[in-house]
Amino acid sequence: MVTTRLTEALGIEHPVIQGGMMWVGRAELAAAVSEAGGLGMITALTQPTPDDLVAEIEKARALTDKPVGVNLTILPAIDPPPYDEYRRAIIDAGVTIVETAGANPEPHMDMFTAHGVRVIHKCTSVRHALKAQSVGVTAVSIDGFECAGHPGEDDVPGLVLVPAAADRLTIPFTACGGFADGRGLAAALALGADGITMGSRFMCTQESPVAPTVKERIVAGTERDTNLIFRQLRNTARVAKNAVSDEVVEVLARGGDFADVRELVAGRHGRKVFEDGDLDAGIWTVGLVQGLIHDVPAAGEVVRRTVADAEQILRDRLAMFASPAAV
């Protein structure tokens, strides 16, 4: 067992968190990760209403009695979801761990803290992590440039970002972006992190609700099969390389603006990819780490073998430095 500040702060067995992913973070996947000793995440906004979120939380609780978290991503929108209602639903459902992302978590901290909810905030820079620490979050997730979704605009990979965070933070943190197995967990711990958060790896598991063709594409994909879109708009996103994301890159490179790609990147099309398996129906997120994903195991197996392999790697490496007498 690998015990870290993270496992102690969250009351979990293994320092492995399933990242919150739109259309992916549902009860079956989250419960499977938690039951294996990690921390599974239900994605709040995947559920159409706060009442649906409560029902999804109860579904997960029927599958495991271990902690399950909820991801609440807060982004600017012309017609924003009722965030306050989702937040209240999370609290009323008795959830004690929330992953926030997308915006400063400070407006939500008083209510979450008052109800004993521990907050993990996703950050793509040390400066943002320090701000989150200052407003009282329990932990942060440090997302390197390798990650799926929005990696920020600094383009700093995890090999630098993780130890930079370790030098400045006093709260526990996970490393995210580029992690798929025990080698990654061992490396993250060596760099100063207290655990890892994995998204794409858990998306490609048996309990993941995405279509089989998506999982097959991830297994077949390499670390070169993603696109960075919205670079010119200073809202970079890493998505799977397909006909749609290629077109988005080309339109923006020619001087187009968001209005020219709005329909191409509409979220309903990405949902269709995950639900129907049409890989060119829209844009969908996956990280560089797909180059390290070669199978579709059970989510619990991912947790168990990641931790077991990390322990073995760390023991083997430490043995290299043992004195002859000790050996």
Automatic annotation (TrEMBL):
The keyword Transcription regulation does not apply. The keyword Metal-binding does not apply. Its EC number is 1.13.12.-. It holds the Pfam family NMO. Signal peptide: none annotated. Keywords: Flavoprotein, FMN, Monooxygenase, Oxidoreductase. One of its GO terms (molecular function) is monooxygenase activity. InterPro entries: Aldolase_TIM, NMO. This is Nitronate monooxygenase.
